[in-house]
Amino acid sequence: GAVVSQHPSRVICKSGTSVKIECRSLDFQATTMFWYRQFPKQSLMLMATSNEGSKATYEQGVEKDKFLINHASLTLSTLTVTSAHPEDSSFYICSASRLALGETQYFGPGTRLLVL
Amino acid sequence: DQQVKQNSPSLSVQEGRISILNCDYTNSMFDYFLWYKKYPAEGPTFLISISSIKDKNEDGRFTVFLNKSAKHLSLHIVPSQPGDSAVYFCAASRSGNTGKLIFGQGTTLQVKP
């Protein structure tokens, strides 16, 4: 299957700071990337859908000004958590898909964010 | 509004036996269903999928059954192996295999040696 990486794998930051998480498709060009978050023992919740070169589509209840998504190339999407607060602590996972080929989503390993 | 539900948070089976993981959905517009396997602190790994035009799909030890009238799908693992121990998520999509995925809450499977 295709390989998707995320960086960093774990980050601890102070409340009020911003954190950037990168999602890369290593061996294919991803027309679409998705960002999810998962709280402990809960499901993966879709935050936003990101298409290369266009604005991200956010799910209801997700603040677009707080979670900035940039999909500047076919292999890289970034999620920036701005002015992070302890309640933003979560496991953030991205997935990538070559929608043009009708393939399923391939997930990254996730990023554990802890806001103190 | 939980459109995809996995009502059993955990399941324990003996090695070599069958594991049956269940998933129910409420949205009749879903036309594609997937199962993912996830280890702690890792991203989900795709296992198997099924289109709504089928009622069964098999891949090695994994078989997914879809009952559209009951809005129910299940994943069968035969025979179960200790390495299968993980959290299993079912997911559904409205746009074939290219749309956004709605995940269930997950079922933790433990396969005992």
Structure, briefly:
The complex is a heterodimer of chains A (116) and B (113). Chain A is mainly beta and 116 residues long.
Write the layout of secondary structure elements.
The complex is a heterodimer of chains A (116) and B (113).
Chain A: E1 4-7, E2 10-13, E3 19-25, E4 32-38, E5 44-51, E6 57-58, E7 67-73, E8 76-81, E9 90-97, E10 106-107, E11 111-115
Parallel strand pairs in A: 2-11
Antiparallel strand pairs in A: 1-3, 3-8, 4-5, 4-9, 5-6, 7-8, 9-10, 9-11
Chain B: E1 4-5, E2 10-14, E3 19-25, E4 32-38, E5 45-51, E6 56-59, E7 62-67, E8 72-77, E9 86-93, E10 102-103, E11 107-112
Parallel strand pairs in B: 2-11
Antiparallel strand pairs in B: 1-3, 3-8, 4-5, 4-9, 6-7, 7-8, 9-10, 9-11
Can you describe what's shown?
The complex is a heterodimer of chains A (116) and B (113). The mean pLDDT of chain A is 90. Chain A has no helices and eleven strands. In chain A, strand 4 and strand 5 form a beta hairpin. Chain A has strands at residues 4-7, 10-13, 19-25, 32-38, 44-51, 57-58, 67-73, 76-81, 90-97, 106-107, 111-115. The model of chain B has no long low-confidence stretch (mean pLDDT 92). The A-B interface holds A 1, 4, 6, 32, 34, 36, 41-46, 49, 91, 93, 95, 97, 99, 102-110, 112 and B 4, 9, 34, 36, 41-46, 49, 89, 96-98, 100-106.
Terminal residue distance of chain A: 36 Å
Broad structural category of chain B: mainly beta
Rg of chain B (C-alpha, Å):
13 Å
SSE pattern of chain B, N- to C-terminal = EEEEEEEEEEE
User: Biggest sheet of chain B, in brief?
Assistant: 6 strands, mixed
Strand content of chain B: over 45%
User: What composes the largest sheet of chain A?
Assistant: 7 strands, mixed
Mean pLDDT of chain B comes to 92
The amount of helix of chain A comes to under 10%
- Low-confidence stretches of chain B are none
Point out poorly predicted stretches of chain A: none
> By helix and strand content of chain A, what is the structural category?
mainly beta
Mean pLDDT of chain A: 90
H and E string of chain A: EEEEEEEEEEE
Helix content of chain B: under 10%
Net shape of chain B: globular
Largest interface, chains and sizes: A-B, 28 and 22 residues
Give the strand tally of chain B. Answer: 11
- Rough outline of chain A: globular
Distance between the termini of chain B: 38 Å
Radius of gyration of chain A: 13 Å
